[in-house]
Design brief:
Layout: E1 5-10, H1 17-30, E2 34-40, H2 45-54, E3 59-61, H3 63-66, H4 68-77, E4 83-88, H5 101-108, E5 112-117, H6 125-135, E6 141-149, H7 152-165, E7 170-175, E8 184-185, E9 188-189, H8 201-212, H9 215-227, E10 247-252, E11 257-259, H10 262-270, E12 273-278, E13 292-295, E14 297-298, H11 304-309, H12 311-322, E15 327-330, H13 332-337, E16 340-342, E17 348-350, E18 358-361, E19 367-371, E20 374-375, E21 390-394, E22 396-398, E23 406-410, E24 416-421, E25 425-428, E26 431-432, H14 439-450
Parallel strand pairs: 1-4, 1-5, 2-3, 2-4, 5-6, 6-7, 10-12, 10-13, 13-15, 15-25, 16-18
Antiparallel strand pairs: 8-9, 11-14, 16-17, 18-22, 19-21, 20-23, 21-26, 23-24, 24-25
Helix pairs in contact: 1-2, 1-8, 6-7, 10-14
């Protein structure tokens, strides 16, 4: 059999796409297959769930943010021989233009298996299948999975209508099961490291998937549809090795800071960085000998009390930045570098204090979407005129913007972003992906190398 590869999409957000994707990954892994996961779009959370299930790093494939060449390279370079590649889509199949699951499937030549929530409908599901199958003649809709089936009678009505009106194969009917539900919160589902499928939940999900889906048919269709697809050559993106010895780069990684694109971390290593992970929650001192800091996004608001109570770490980071050493923070990392964090109950927790603002949590989403920051003057990640690429998604706001804090990013809507202080500290709400601009990683590493002297924490 050819190496199967497939994309699991949904009709809309909330149709059960992630649960079914995890079930398929888990069931295939139980069969002894090497399952290589990927995620369409900029999401940080689903890849951790994929890793929980498969034991393998799941990488983001986002044509809009990273470009088609980078996506093709990432997909082909990270598929082990004899593996089965499973890509989870984003939102509804056609939602998002160049960032959509449909666009990604066309870019990579992947067959699409569509998850449909059939609650509160029966024969009408055939119209849904027919509409999705016929909307884009260049898309390979290879099969459908009917989710949340209520009864045998319900299943028969749905199956009969689809088979009468649509040639698209039915892969299976998954029943309603509350026990395999993955809990969510303001930024999305719970992370894989939090083991959201408690106890034997994952095993139960795998068993249900094996029982209710025809995985042999899914694999056969995927292999057949991929057989005639020649891999598209793509230039390998790489960060130029900056001149000099390797540098030790401290990377905050714990329950509060867990949003990192694996490709960014790889590009930093290619550029000459040795990544040294530490926890601003648990550790009281910075790792010895580090020459720069990278504070990613995550959930500082859920751990604000512990972060604030760790005065030693806050002071160490403050001194490190004031000494002119390179510090880069994104979203949650930016919130941590600010003066304080105010939670929904109004509790005011002091943070590192490099930036003059309080960040205040809100009950509603404050900003969401792709961003293209243009660098307005030379900075830690690019020369003036460089266009970077990323995504913004947060529930907090800045209490008061102070013009005295310089910004070095200008967004397409003319907003300022990317705040710089103490010459080498750069932070803001945007999560950047350096797939289109690998030189950003090299510039960051070189700045760490060129910062003067050792800082004794």
């Amino acid at each position: 059999m050819n190496r199967p590869a497939l994309l699991i999409a949904g009709t809309h957000s909330g149709c059960g796409k992630t649960t079914l994707t995890l079930g398929i990954m888990a069931a295939l892994a139980r069969r002894g297959l090497v399952v290589q996961p990927f995620k369409c779009g900029p999401d940080f959370i689903d890849p951790t769930l994929h890793r929980m299930v498969t034991g393998r790093i799941s990488r983001n494939l986002d044509v809009r943010m990273c470009g088609a060449d980078f996506v093709r390279h990432t997909f082909t370079a990270n598929r082990p021989p004899e593996s089965c590649a499973v890509v989870e889509g984003v939102m509804g199949l056609f939602d998002g233009g160049e960032g959509s699951a449909a666009f990604l499937a066309r870019t990579l030549g992947l067959p699409v298996f569509l998850v449909i929530d059939v609650r509160s409908a029966a024969e009408s599901i055939a119209a849904v299948v027919k509409g999705f199958a016929g909307l884009d003649p260049h898309l390979d809709l290879a099969g459908v999975i009917c989710n949340r089936v209520g009864s045998e009678k319900h299943q028969n009505l749905v199956a009969g209508a689809i088979r009468e009106h649509c040639p698209t194969p039915i892969i299976g009917f998954f029943p309603r099961r509350d026990e395999v539900h993955i809990p969510s919160r303001h930024l999305g589902l719970h992370m894989g490291e939090e083991h959201p499928l408690k106890g034997d939940g994952l095993e139960h999900l795998a068993q249900l998937t094996e029982q209710h889906l025809d995985l042999d048919l899914l694999l056969r269709i995927a292999a057949e549809h991929c057989a005639g697809i020649a891999p598209t050559p793509a230039m390998e993106p790489s960060a130029p090795m900056s001149t000099g010895p390797r540098v030790r780069l401290g990377v905050a990684r714990d329950a509060a800071f867990c949003f990192y694109y694996q490709d960014n971390l790889d590009l930093l290593c290619q550029a000459g960085a040795e990544l040294v992970f530490f926890s601003p929650i648990e550790d009281t001192v910075l790792p010895p000998g580090i020459e720069g800091l990278y504070l990613g996004g995550g959930y500082p608001e859920l751990h604000a009390r512990q972060l604030s109570a760790n005065l030693g770490m806050r002071e160490q980071i403050h001194c490190f930045a004031r000494a002119g050493r390179p510090v880069y923070g994104e979203c949650g990392g930016f919130m941590y570098l600010c003066r304080a964090l105010v939670d929904l109950e109004g509790n005011d927790y002091p943070m590192v204090g490099l930036y003059p603002w309080r960040t205040r949590m809100q009950t509603r989403l404050r900003s969401l979407g792709y961003r293209r920051p243009t660098v307005t003057r030379d900075c830690l990640l690019g020369e003036q005129g460089t266009v970077l690429h990323g995504h913004e998604f947060h529930y907090s706001t800045l209490d008061q913007e102070q013009p005295s804090t310089e910004s070095v990013f200008r967004l397409d809507d003319n907003r300022s972003e990317g705040y710089i202080i103490h010459h080498q500290t750069l932070a803001g709400y945007i999560h950047l992906h350096w797939g289109r601009t690998p030189e950003a990683a090299s510039r960051f590493v070189q700045a760490c190398r060129q910062s003067n002297g050792d800082l004794d924490p």
